[in-house]
Amino acid sequence: MRPLTRIAASTSALTLAAAGLIITTGSTPAFASTCSQSRLPLPDATCTPGAYNPDVTQSTIGSTICVSGWTATVRPPTSYTNPLKAQGIIDYGYADTAMADYEEDHLVPLELGGAPRDPGNLWPEPYSGTKTATTKDGVETKLKNAVCKGTITLSAARSAIRNNWTTALSVTGIG
User: Rounded to an integer, what distance in angstroms lies between the CA atom of residue 29 and that of residue 169?
Assistant: First the structure.
């Protein structure tokens, strides 16, 4: 499913679910996944290509991402992200459909100036496995700290995490 259609699809899926109109087999909803799990722990690049916040540039990091608490000012509320997470769980065809088992994560994190509300930058990242949403959080913080110290550029950090967050620290030379 294309990222821009995820909001409409999420609303439709929630409406159908609330009305009890999703066909189920036993306790598992019957649906076809549109996004591949083959790259996990990375998202499907077609469904989740990543996106940047245009307000965050190398010249604005001192007044944006490098200010303590800045991400709280741009983080979307769960009333926005939970419908995307519900649809993303369907889109990715996860067998485990428990919302609590996923973080609706920004591929390009808010800490590096990722687009807060762009559905193409959000995906349901599993908490299970060897490289999880929690693991990615640590990578994001290390990259942001390196950007704010001037060790690497914002562009290098964004590119590394967008391409493959599991190798981003080694690619940038900070881990």
Answer: 38
- Is the separation of the CB atoms in 95 and 28 below 8 Å? yes
* Cα 150 to the center of its chain, rounded Å: 25
Measured CA to CA, the distance from residue 154 to residue 105 in angstroms comes to 19
How do strand 24-25 and strand 102-106 relate by DSSP bridges?
unpaired
| pLDDT tens string 28-51 | 444 457 999 999 999 999 999 999
Over the stretch 51-66, which tens digit does the pLDDT of each residue have? 999 999 999 999 999 9
